[in-house]
Design a protein that fits this description.
With 338 residues, the chain is an alpha/beta fold. The chain has twelve helices and 14 strands. Helix 8 packs parallel to helix 10 and helix 8 packs across helix 12.
Length: 338
Amino acid sequence: MESMVVKTIEQRKNFWRDRPTLVTGCTGILGSWLTKTLVDLGADVVGLIRDWIPQSELVRSGTVERIKTVCGDIRDSDVMNRLFSEYEVDSCFHLAAQTIVGIANRMPVSTLETNIQGTWTVLEAARQWGASKRIIVASSDKAYGDHKVLPYDETAPLQGQHPYDVSKSCADLIALSYAHTYGLPIAVTRCGNLYGGGDLNWNRIVPGTMRAVLRGERPIIRSDGSPRRDYVYVLDIVDAYLTLAEAMLNGEHSGEAFNFGLDQPKSALEMVKEIIALSPELAIEPVVLGNASNEIQDQYLNSDKAHRLLGWQAQHTLAEGLSETMNWYSQHIGLLEA
């Protein structure tokens, strides 16, 4: 099994069938869709859950009933050590994090503890278990910090300055240090801004705007509308994670980082207008507050390394991804608010 090259859906199923796989952060937007996909592929999935979130796509879709669940915090070394050894984790996707910039600005200590201490606790448990064949650690394009030269490629230094960015820079470096120092099979992902159905963080631009227009309300832009980001559909990132994991054969790509994005940056105002164009409220205008603080003006990625070495490419255009996402919120937003 470990020598195969995954090219087709049947080969992908053969690769993941019965493979003991841990997903931390499985109730989040990426965790929910990744877990569902892994279960559909036949993986033996265990999910680490800190808070029970009934509105999560993991719960709503019924995926939570198809996996093993461990309740606990990634900062708890006893929980993590037990989890790796008792469930004999072969593959680990470490996604759990505090991901909201505003919360990080208000409560930096809890963000730093979750994102940094949580990462080293997971990796130390993996080191002590010693039998995992692939560990994917979710970093972020925010780990790069503010650079004058864009887009970022993987050689750009990690120089976060604000609490969330620093937490991702540190976690990223810790992950790579465990790979280089202890020989753990770890690779790091740095993704653009994920969007898709099931994102319940309403202060993010895509879910917040979609909820507003579906209610007939004016969407709010916290910035002046000009900051540019790379937005990428969640199912393309699920494919990216699986593609990278499948490529990590015999230590391949250990100690490496990969950017994953659509490589088509859009301003906040452009994104809101794209969403309005898909909504029933075509004449609605956003409210531009212009009061966002501690956020970088422009951040976007170069994904050439993933294209070249992994053969990965996003399969959804922005219009296609936003259309599928709008359909999800159109069907589910009433249930979420009931």
